[in-house]
Amino acid sequence: MKLSIVILILASFNAAAGEAEVCKGNKGARSFLSEWWEGGRISNILTTIQGAEILRERGRIAYQADLNGDGNQDYIFESFDSQGSAKDRTFGIFIQCRGFLQFLGGDYFAGVEEIGSKNNGYNDVIFLSYQRDKSDEVINAEGQALTRSHVWSFNPGSGKYEGGMD
């Protein structure tokens, strides 16, 4: 009985250490979100400071939830500045780390559907991509673009969210 309690305690320290490692990650880049009122509507701005360089992206918060169970709201940010010719946009997964946001992965997608079950202490993220024909055109049915789901999971080895694109 005592051995199982010790194992549980060590496992909880290990999980907490994994979360802390993500926040220790890239100390050179600091990101944060802010709102900007322009033309009668609010835009979200993702600002990333890396050394002397400041990058800003207009977009929206596509999803907001506690992805890693630390009690802080984390974000999936959809950038309007990165739209490709196929209407996909970049979606980035950001975890809160002591007042800043840490980028944990992302790619071009059509949207984000939902947050899935917990895997390695982090919620899976379900992204959508457009279904395409042999000419790489988006397939439509009844006036709607068809999409497929892609599950992205946190990989503790890389410290990033990873998933496949069919």
From TrEMBL:
Residues 1-17 form the signal peptide. It comes from the Bacteria. Keywords: Signal. This is VCBS repeat-containing protein.
